[in-house]
Structures are given as structure tokens and as C-alpha cells.
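If you are new to this repository, start here. Below is one unmodified record pulled from the training split, so you can see the exact layout before writing a loader.
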Amino acid sequence: MARIGIGDLAPGFSLESVNLGAVSLGDFDGKRVVLIFGRYFGCPVCQLDFDELLRYKDMIKEYAELVYFTQSSPESAGDYISGYEVDFPVIPVSKEDDYQIYCDYDVGNMGPSTLFNLFKRAREAKKEGKTHGSYEGRETQSPADFVVDEEGRIIWVNRGMLNLEKLLVFLEGF
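And here is the target side for that same chain:
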């Protein structure tokens, strides 16, 4: 099977978010949507990335809807986002389900460049006072993000560290 990429139909999903109830890809028919695959909220880099996402979310939402996936448990995800105003679905993906949505989008293990960038970003997270919490999910899990167009086709793929500035430039130009 070929790796999912630009031009492919986005795999559907119907999952429970910790903050906005059940969410499916079909809820966004006719709309552009950004799908962000994080690792887990115990990860200081993921905490830093999520905080940055909250700063960018209104700019992103001018162009697309937003969905965030995490390998944290529902309890951990709910605890982490409880102190923030999160107006997009945060979906915990279960180990019991073998992280199926990550598999559907071919979001696998980190490659060498992602791992190198993760270590660089970890220094930034430490400077920001982020500390490691509970280990959840796959420790080698790569982050990724996708943009799905109004017809359900993937128009952006980034398997690696989240770069919201680059994503926003893409959204503004599309």
C-alpha cells in the first residue's frame, strides 16, 4: 500500500473528543480542516507546541477548521486543556485501538531529522518551564499535520515537527 499523501482522499474517522463530544471527518464536509497529530501531553515539547497552537488558532481558523489528536488518555488530555480556552476538538487516541487514526494517516515513528529537531525543541520547552509528565503513547511517535480541502482531499502533509508559521503561510496562499 502506498503512503497517503497530497491528492489522496483523507481517511474518515468518528471519534470522541474530550471537550466537544463526537467528531467525524464528515462534520467538515465542504470546509477545509487542519488535522494535527501530537504525541502526548506529558511530553514537554508537545506542551510547548500545544501552547503555540493556541496562540495561532484564531489565525488558522480564518482559513480552516482545526482538530487535534493526542495519544494521551482522555483524563490526561482533559486535565491538560482544562486551564485553556480550547474551541476545537481534542481527540485522545486509544492504545487499545492501536492508535488506528495515526496508522490511517501513516503517521509513524520519528525519523532522524525529526528526532534531532525534537531534542532542539526540548531545550526551548525546558527554558519555558515545561516539565515531563506521564509517559503515554508511543515514545517514538512522530508528530504530523495535514490539511484536507473542501472535497476531502489532502492538500498539505507534514510528517515531523509542527511548524505553525509554515502551515499558516500555506493556508494564506491556497
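Two things worth knowing about this chain: The mean pLDDT is 94. The CA atoms of residues 113 and 158 lie 13 Å apart.
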